[in-house]
From TrEMBL:
It comes from the Bacteria. Residues 41-261 form the Histidine kinase domain. It comes from Asticcacaulis aquaticus. This is histidine kinase.
């Protein structure tokens, strides 16, 4: 009958649409695989030549034969430090792309709070010392000895927070306090007595390429990617990061993580940074 024929046609249409959608999904998946492969290769292709230039610039700057002029040594050191900045930028951009592509692997293992605290102190004491800032790492006695997390990524976040705290503080102190919370999480709070962040700017500092203030960023340098990466990494670690600050007084960035990393409690894909 006429009605059956109409239904048949509608069914055919639906089938065709379903096939189209499946094909599009496959194409998208393929494109995303190409993108990930490209990024992985790119990371290698960019880093390899840069690393060899950096090694050579260091050799030159060391001037072991003693046959370079003072100016030549200065140039070699500038090549080295600019190269290091470029390497850091490349690493940041690649990290961010990896996270957005859902390709950032988290490798959880038992992490010792004490070792973490010691390593961070050793890394940051010289930097704090240069600016005559006091650096304190405060480990709560209520912490267990170990907890489960990705040590490398956790350190990446904490190093970013600590280096910002030191960078944006002219006098006073920087403190990292690590303590368990009643809800079974652990809080890593980085507090500084630095320039602080105004309420308006607090809304955008976690966005990629955003710096609180262009006059400030010209003075302090940086890429504006660190906090964006830190926020994404803390979510991949099953936690989150928040900020309390008052302009002119100082800031506290707090990273909260579960005491036991559970891959099932992590969103498969974090929303791309804006
Ligand atoms: P970068 O430090 O490379 O500029 P980040 O993403 O780490 O990038 O930080 C973004 C911006 O947030 C900084 O440019 C700065 O304006 C502001 N900011 C971050 N940490 C602090 C801090 N501890 N005190 C004051 N401002 C900060």
């Amino acid at each position: 009958s006429e009605q059956t024929r109409v239904l048949e046609i509608q069914k055919e249409d639906l089938n065709r649409n379903a096939t189209d959608i499946a094909q599009k999904a496959q194409e998208l998946e393929q494109a995303s695989r190409y993108k990930s492969d490209f990024l992985a290769n790119m990371s290698h292709e960019l880093r390899t030549p840069l690393n060899s230039s950096l090694i050579l610039a260091k050799l030159l700057g060391d001037n072991r034969e003693g046959n370079l002029t003072e100016e030549q040594v200065k140039f070699a050191r500038t090549i080295q430090s600019s190269g290091n900045d470029l390497l850091a930028l490349i690493n940041d951009i690649l990290d961010l792309s990896k996270i957005e592509a859902g390709q950032m692997d988290i490798n959880a293992e038992p992490v010792s709070f004490k070792r973490l605290a010691n390593d961070l102190t050793r890394t940051f004491e010289p930097l704090a010392g240069e600016k005559k800032l006091s650096l304190t790492v405060d480990l709560s006695p209520d912490l267990p000895e170990l907890f489960d997390s990705d040590r490398q990524r956790l350190e990446q976040v904490l190093k970013n927070l600590l280096s910002n705290a030191i960078k944006f503080t002219e006098k006073g102190s920087v403190t990292l306090s690590i303590a368990p919370k009643a809800d079974g999480t652990v809080a890593f709070a980085v507090t500084d007595t630095g320039i602080g962040i105004s309420e308006e700017q607090q809304r955008t500092v976690f966005d990629a390429f955003r710096q609180a203030d262009s006059t400030i960023s010209r003075k302090y340098g940086g890429t504006g990617l660190g906090l964006s990466i830190s926020r994404q990494l803390s979510r991949l670690l099953g936690g989150h990061i928040h900020l309390q600050s008052e302009a002119g007084k100082g800031s506290t960035f707090t990273l909260e993580l579960p005491l036991n990393y559970n891959p099932d409690q992590v969103p498969a894909r974090v929303e791309p940074a804006t």
